[in-house]
Amino acid sequence: MHRIVVAALAALSLTACAAQTQRQFATFHLFDDGFELLQAFFKTGRLLLRLLLWHRPIILRASLSLPMIVTFFLLALLAGSLVYSVLAIVASLRYLAVRPPALAKAEPVSILKPLHGLDLGLESNLRTFFEQDYAEFEILFAVRESHDAAIPVVEKLRAEYPHIPTRLIITGEPPYPNAKVYSLHKMMAVAAYDLLVMSDSDIRVTRDLLKSIAAEFQDAKLGV
Predict the structure, then answer these.
(1) Which are the contacts of 110, defined by CB distance < 8 A and separation ≥ 6?
(2) Residue 106: partners with Cβ closer than 8 Å, 6 or more residues away
(3) How many CB atoms lie under 10 A from the CB of residue 189?
């Protein structure tokens, strides 16, 4: 019985590994062929588990003992983990090797920041947007109520960086359930520039964020 429990736990680990692999590789759209092979491996592992748990007499007639089956299954699980690790490392290296194109012209940018409450590290997160190494940009903030706890933090940063164009918008209660979308809609309506950068209050960025984004949007074929 305990061997069957071990096999079941191994199958659960295999399924979790497959789900994590699918999320990561779908994110980067890398190694489609390798991912299909990995999926085939996982399907084989699940089939082996079904044979182990549901068709045990058939396996025993094939002269394979239960300990041998469990051993082979765990070895297959280990091999799949190694394949996944190698693919994840290669994908990470390819991702890090990507460099944005050179920025030929700094198009003005409007940064949209929907806020609600005092998040952990809010001041530090927002400060990174005020300190962008970029020629021309504005920052728009939106809160639902005039007594929102994020407002004093925003006002403090606006006083520290008076040369950065900013605007604070009190949106009021949204007419539909998604308050963040409503805040973004309000900020987009008054944004001064066409190139928009939207991010949540818990995002902290490097000084070259706007340069990287603007460089990508130099491609005339790129747009929404």
Answers:
(1) 137, 138, 140, 187, 191, 192, 193, 195, 196, 197
(2) 134, 135, 136, 211, 214
(3) 8
Q: Are 212 and 136 in contact (CB under 8 A)?
A: no
Report the percentage of the chain scoring pLDDT > 70: 70
Q: Which residue has the tokens 């979790």?
A: 16
Pairing status of strand 137-143 against strand 166-170? parallel
- pLDDT at 2 > cutoff 80: no
The DSSP string of 40-75 is HHHHHHHHHHHHHHH-HHHHHHTT--HHHHHHHHHH
**Residue 52, pLDDT score:** 53
The values of phi and psi at residue 140, to 5°, are -110, 130
Helix (H) or strand (E) holding 146: none
CB 138 within 8 A of CB 111: yes
Complete edge-to-edge strand list for the sheet that includes strand 137-143: 166-170, 137-143, 109-114, 195-198
Under DSSP, is residue 190 helix (H, G, I), strand (E, B) or coil?
helix
Of 223, 220, 142, 157, which Cα lies nearest the Cα of 188?
142
Euclidean distance between CA atoms 43 and 39, whole angstroms: 6
**Residue 208 corresponds to which tokens in the numbers above?**
């070259």
Q: How far is the C-alpha of 109 from the C-alpha of 136, rounded, in Å?
A: 7
User: SS3 of 79, please?
Assistant: helix
Q: What is the pTM of this model?
A: 0.61
Region 187-205: mean pLDDT is 94
Count the Cβ atoms, other than its own, within 10 Å of residue 185.
Answer: 15
